[in-house]
Design a protein that fits this description.
- The protein has two helices and two strands.
- By secondary structure, the protein is an alpha+beta fold.
- It has one domain.
- Strands 1-2 form a two-stranded antiparallel sheet.
Length: about 80
């Protein structure tokens, strides 16, 4: 699915973010203590911004995704 979505994200965000696919682990299960992790893929968006303004641009991207007619709710975080 990530491979199918990547070109769409690249086109829509071409002037706002660099988009790539990376391996990750996704938490599965629910309840008070879900411990299992499943190998997965993440679509990674790195905002194109001046130094020191990356976090603000990431917050704008997150807000824009959440304002879509069908909101995209996911993890939006700064990489360290």
């Amino acid at each position: 699915m990530a491979n199918r979505l990547l070109p769409v994200f690249e086109e829509k965000l071409k002037n706002r973010a660099e988009v790539s696919i990376e391996d990750c682990k996704s938490q599965i299960g629910s309840g008070a203590l879900p411990l299992d992790l499943l190998a997965s893929k993440a679509i990674v968006m790195k905002p194109i911004a001046e130094k020191g303004k990356t976090d603000a641009e990431l917050q704008k991207l997150a807000t824009d995704f959440r304002k879509l007619p069908k909101p995209a709710i996911g993890r939006f975080m700064m990489a360290v």
